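Researcher: Please translate sequence to C-alpha cells.
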Amino acid sequence: MNSAMSRRARLLLATLLLPLSLVTAACGGSSESAGSPTASSAGAGFPVTVSAANGQITVTSVPRRVVSLSPSATETLFAVGAGSQVVAVDDQSDFPAEAPKTSLSAFQPNAEAVAGHSPDLVVLAHDSNGVVKALTTLKIPVLLLPAPKTLSEAYTQMVTLGSVTGHVEAATTLVERTRSRIDAAAKAAAPVKGMRLYHELDPTYYSVTSETFLGDLYIALGLANIADQAEDLAGGYPKLSAEYIVKAAPDIITLADTGSDAGGQSPEKVAKRPAFADLPAVRSGRVIAVDADIASRWGPRIADYAEFLAKTLTTAGN
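Model: Translation complete:
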C-alpha cells in the first residue's frame, strides 16, 4: 500500500481485507430468526445462545460491563439501547460521542488490557493476537462478529447484539427502520439506477465488490459495480488499476479516501488523474466525497449513507 497513507487509513483497509465470515444469530434456533424477537425486554429471555464466528456463544445473564473492540458493534450497541452497559470501547470507536473511548486497540488487542475493564462480554470484529482464546481462557464471554457480506447479515448482527444485551425488541425495531430507510433511498435513487459505480477505498485503487455489505447496499440502490469484473484476490476487496477504471468508464465515483489522514483525495484531484477527466463521473459531477467511517461500518448508519447517496447522486450536475 501507499507509504504516504496514514496509519488509520492502512488499519481501516486491513480490517476490510480480513477474511469475511458469515455470522448468524441463533436466538430462535436459525438465521431466519434474525428479524424476530426472542426476548420481550431487557433482562428477559436469558440465558441467550447466539452463533458467531467463534462458535455458539451462551450469555447467561444480562451483561453489565460490555467492552466493544468494533466501531460497528459500538454504534449498534448504543442504537439498541445498550449504551449504559458499555464500559469501554476501542480507540477507533468514535461514534456516538458518548461512547467510552479508550486506548484499547481493535487491531492489535491485548487480552490483559481488555480484562482490566472487568468485562462480562467482549465484542470484536476480528481475532488478532489470539485474543479470543485468551479471553475465553479467562472465562470472559467473547462474541466475534466480523464484517458481513450482505445487508441481511448486517441486520442479523444487529439482532444478535440486541439479543445478548437484553434489547432484542429494540434491535428488531432498529433493523426494520434501517431496512425501510434503505428501501426508501433506493426509490429516491431511481434516476441513477443502472449507472456504473467505482468505490475508492484508497489512492492505490482498492475497491469493493458486490460480495461485501457495502457492495450489497449499492445493489439495493440499483447501481452496477465496476469492481465485480475485476480479479479479486482479497475476498471482495480487489485492487484495481487506473487503466481498468478508465476502461470501465464509471458514471459515479465514491471517494472514501478524502481525509488528510486517508490519502487526501478530492473530486478535483480525481479529475487531474491521467485520462480521468473524460470519465462520465467527472463530466457529470458525480465524483462524491463520502464519510469513510459511515461507509465502512455495518451498523445502523448504513441507512444514513444510503440516504446521502440517493440525495447527492440525483442532484449532482443539476
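Researcher: Any highlights?
Model: The chain is about 35% helix and 10% strand.
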